[in-house]
């Protein structure tokens, strides 16, 4: 007979008779909620005590329904496209942005050297400066 590998530990076989040491209550103690099958304790449960999240006061709210969220594109990405004119509709049709949302905002990450007419709803200061330095135009859409 082959000897067992020393690092391999047998799993605990509960409920296999009193001689196993894990019989009768199957390592669950006596009666109570934790001894029942299907028991799971949710996060933040404090044994029936009023939990911390209910003891603390509620403060503020997040009014996300009126939030303006912009589709974002960087100057570097516009330079890679190689178009003479860039609008939100062109970018959406091309798949560069998925949704126009509340509008398009152009940010200044990256470099641009070709003159491009960019039509967007918002521009960062650095993006506007880089577009105009390259000889292009930053046109605001109302």
Structure in words:
The protein is of the alpha/beta class and 142 residues long. The chain is built from four helices and six strands. The chain has helices spanning 52-55, 75-81, 88-94, 125-133, and strands at 71-74, 85-86, 104-107, 117-120, 122-123, 137-140. The strands form two sheets. It has a three-stranded parallel β-sheet. The protein has a three-stranded parallel β-sheet with strand order 2-4-6.
Summarize the topology:
Elements: H1 52-55, E1 71-74, H2 75-81, E2 85-86, H3 88-94, E3 104-107, E4 117-120, E5 122-123, H4 125-133, E6 137-140
Judging from the principal axes of the Cα atoms, what is the shape? Answer: elongated
Radius of gyration: 32 Å
Spatial order of the strands forming the largest sheet: 1-3-5
The amount of helix comes to 10-25%
The chain-level mean pLDDT equals: 91
SSE series: HEHEHEEEHE
Report the CATH topology name of the domain at 69-140.
Answer: Ribosomal Protein L15, Chain: K, domain 2
Summarize this entry quickly.
The termini are far apart. It contains four helices and six strands; from the N terminus they run H-E-H-E-H-E-E-E-H-E. The protein is of the alpha/beta class.
């Amino acid at each position: 007979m082959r000897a067992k590998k020393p690092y391999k530990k047998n799993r605990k076989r509960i409920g296999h008779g009193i001689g196993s040491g894990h019989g009768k209550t199957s390592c669950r103690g006596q009666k109570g909620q934790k001894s029942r099958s299907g028991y799971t304790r949710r996060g933040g449960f404090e044994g029936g005590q009023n939990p911390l999240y209910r003891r603390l006061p509620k403060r503020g709210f997040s009014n996300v329904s009126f939030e303006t969220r912009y589709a974002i594109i960087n100057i570097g990405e516009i330079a890679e496209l190689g178009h003479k004119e860039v609008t939100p509709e062109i970018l959406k049709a091309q798949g560069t942005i998925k949704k126009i949302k509340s509008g398009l905002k152009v940010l200044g990450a990256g470099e641009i050297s070709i003159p491009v007419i960019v039509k967007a709803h918002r521009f960062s200061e650095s993006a506007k400066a880089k577009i105009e330095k390259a000889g292009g135009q930053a046109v605001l859409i109302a």
